[in-house]
Design brief:
about 290 residues, alpha/beta, Arginase, Chain A, 8-stranded parallel β-sheet, 8 strands, globular
């Protein structure tokens, strides 16, 4: 019997014929938010990956400028979406270890670029650990409203509020952009370690200065609360102010032109039921990142 319509596959961009062997970017959805005490504010970041993929299936070809590539054909996108990662619920440390193993075994080993959809920010550590094994000079470009540099938060060293502290413990250089809230502990830590690459909104320096703090190989991590909350309210810990859409895009595209982005993530989307605009923003951001790095 002839089909009257074709069902859209549930992957990023609704690509009908994915090909892992040809893919350059492999998307891994990670629905995890076990250390986020603010999940009750909305629905929780565990629902972020589903919302991003769902919204991506309704995007047009997005040919907004000459640099864009069509999302309707695999040859022009070179992306593959894995099934959702299933992580341990025993402890945040075990969950992070699961992310590390999944990205190492399923993506990095095959010379693909991982792009993780979160999920809370704590799991970024697993991706960084996996990529540092391949790229010893790895550095981090973090777009975020918070530094995430606490030593411990709510009785764990592996909270979303501690993720950059654990990455710093690995001697990985970190450049932070869009910060709008720190406490005394973090302020003292920044002074003690003489960290010079934490840039507070609205006083963001030129892109050229930001990029000087990065090595050749870069991991890009975007906490969606970096955006102004007027365009991205669907986050667990919103902060007033923030960066605009084009500010973020210009920085990402500038980094991609001058550095080698070897992995990326978009984190902390907490979908608000019935409010789809932020989900579309997150999906389009993922698309823009893919276009920038391949």
């Amino acid at each position: 019997m002839k089909k009257l319509y074709q069902t859209w596959p549930f992957n990023f961009g609704a690509i009908h014929k994915q090909d892992f062997q040809k893919a350059k970017v492999v998307i891994i959805p990670v629905p995890y938010d076990s250390t986020d005490s603010m999940v009750s504010m909305h629905c929780g970041a565990r629902n972020g990956p589903y919302a991003i993929i769902l919204s991506s299936r309704f995007m047009d070809e997005l040919l907004e400028d000459k640099s864009q590539k069509k999302l309707t054909g695999l040859k022009s996108t070179d992306i593959f979406t894995l099934d959702e990662a299933v992580l341990s619920k025993n402890s945040p440390k075990e969950a992070i270890g699961g992310v590390r193993q999944a990205i190492s075994d399923e993506i990095v080993k095959h010379n693909k670029i991982p792009l993780m959809l979160g999920g809370e920010h704590s799991i970024t550590l697993g991706a960084v650990m996996a990529l540092k094994e391949k790229y010893p000079d790895l550095s981090i470009l973090q777009l975020d409203a918070h530094t995430d540099l606490m030593e411990e938060h709510e009785s764990t060293f592996y909270s979303h509020a501690c993720v950059m502290r654990r990455i710093a413990d690995l001697d990985v250089p970190i450049v932070q952009v869009g910060i709008r809230n720190i406490n005394t502990e973090i302020s003292d830590y920044l002074k003690e370690k003489k960290l010079k690459h934490t840039y507070f909104a609205p006083d963001i320096p030129p892109i050229s200065k930001i990029l000087k703090g990065l090595t050749k190989n870069v991991y890009l991590t975007v906490d969606l609360d970096v955006f102004d909350s007027s365009i991205m309210p669907s986050v667990a810990t919103p902060e007033p102010g923030g960066l605009g859409w084009y500010e973020v895009l210009n920085l990402i595209q500038g980094a991609a032109k001058q550095k080698n982005i070897v992995g990326a993530d978009v984190m902390e989307l907490c979908p608000i039921p019935g409010f789809e605009a932020p989900n579309f923003l997150a999906a389009k951001l993922v698309y823009k990142i893919i276009c920038a790095i391949i």
